[in-house]
Amino acid sequence: MFICCDEFSDKIDGLIQHLSFEEQKEKFFKELVKSCSTGNELHELINLHLATVVKPSGISSKEFIYTNSIISLYGYLESFLQKLAEEFITSINEASIPVSALPKAIKERHLELSMQFLTKIGKDRNQDDSVKKNCEKQVIENLHSFLQETNEYSLNSKAFSAHTANFRYELIQSYFAQVGVSHIAYRTLGFDNVTNQLALRQQQETTENKSALKNWLEYELGELAQLRNEIAHGSFERSIESFDLIIERASFLRHFGVALASILYRSFEEIVFHGKARFVIGTADRAFPLQSSFGFVGKAINVDEEQFTIKIGDEIFAHNKSTGSKVISGVVSSLMLGGKRSDEVVVPSEQDFSIKVDFEISNSMTNRELSITRRTGVS
After folding, report:
1. Which residues contact 78 (CB under 8 A, 6 or more apart)?
2. Any alpha helices (H) in the chain, and if so which ranges?
3. Is the Cα dihedral 177, 183, 188, 190 positive or negative?
4. By CB atoms within 10 Å of each CB, which of 9, 181, 267, 311 scores lowest?
5. pTM of the full predicted structure?
């Protein structure tokens, strides 16, 4: 999963923790007063504090916490979406995928977005001329390497993270469509955590009606952006929400963000899978979930069959066209050949062998085709 996803979740959790603290603090003072006898010195001291400090500032304090929470939540979401798009493109750069294997949208949009990014750099008043010149030079070099389709090309990741409007449902859809991932916001409705949170926010029973869920999602994202604008521009005149409702909103955003990252990472795995030359191992005869291993029965070697070597550390793919998570990828963590540990296995093999991987597997994964990336220099 992408690093920015953990950062986003941590920020949301931190805000929820702060709101819970504020809520518990208020309850604590009230319970403390109730537990003290009337003549107790502490009783009078706390009552004085409540009367002179807490009550006079109660409404303004809650409004301050609420407006800051909304600004923070939108800010977390905006920053996360930008970092998610940038990290997605950076991951593609690091995967060394041929330009010809890139999603059509990336190839079509890279030039235009890079030119827009160059304009943005030129207008940036927070950077001195030397920094801006170096940035412009790097963008142009990356663009040239891409257009020449060199093996060491680099996409301008920051060009794909730029945006000019508030993130609402439709913008999130189009924002990630330009990196080749279509209908990403709508696809989050396939995650139970997202739909359950939406139903909770709407005070409705959970439904499988996609039209209703889409309307709820559009409303939730649109309202957050609208609230952010009203607060930022000093035109906020609504009633503030309780701490519980702010926490509900925050929890929804966390699940929504995790779902977005999950969809994007699956798309990245698909791009890598289809973009890299691979050796096909075939389907395993057995799957061992507790050991995260695939087992293969030895077979007679056909002299016309291509031979290749599996090594510890090789990138491995488990592919199934008929499932939602079509590709699962990871690394070969250990190998067994003929019941003994081995650093490598030549396939096809007359001896039984097993491959341990660094991702979770299930008994049903014997229907997945396994393959490894062809190492550089290996035909």
Report:
1. 167
2. 3-35, 41-49, 55-95, 104-123, 129-147, 169-177, 184-187, 192-202, 210-232, 243-275
3. negative
4. 311
5. 0.86
Chain segment 246-259, per-residue pLDDT in tens: 999 999 999 999 99
What is the model's pLDDT at position 324? Answer: 62
Phi and psi at 180, nearest 5°, equal 95, 10
Burial string for 47-86 (b: 16+ CB within 10 Å, else e) reads eeebeeeeeeeeeeebeebbbebbebbbebbeebbbbbbb
Among all chains, which residue has been given the structure tokens 């521009």? Answer: 233
Neighbours of 347 (CB within 10 A): 20
Beta pairing class for 340-342 and 308-311: unpaired
Residue type (1 letter), 106: I
Yes or no: say if 134 and 140 are a contact pair by the CB < 8 Å rule. no
Contacts of 225 (CB under 8 A, 6+ apart): 74, 166, 167, 168
Can you tell me the distance from the alpha carbon of 197 to that of 251, in angstroms, rounded to the nearest whole number? Answer: 7
Cα separation of 270 and 174, whole Å? 20
Amino acid at 273: F
Residues 290-345: tens digit of each pLDDT? 999 999 999 988 888 889 999 999 999 999 977 666 899 999 999 999 999 999 99
Coil/strand/helix, residue 194 = helix
Instruction: Determine the Cα–Cα distance for residues 129 and 131; give it in Å rounded to an integer.
Output: 6
Residue with tokens 């706390």: 46
The pLDDT of residue 356:
98
What would the two tokens of residue 71 be? 């600004």
The 3-state secondary structure of 210-249 reads HHHHHHHHHHHHHHHHHHHHHHHCCCCCCCCCCHHHHHHH
What is the distance in angstroms between the CA of the first residue and the CA of the last residue of the chain? Answer: 31
In angstroms, the CA 188 to CA 255 distance is 9
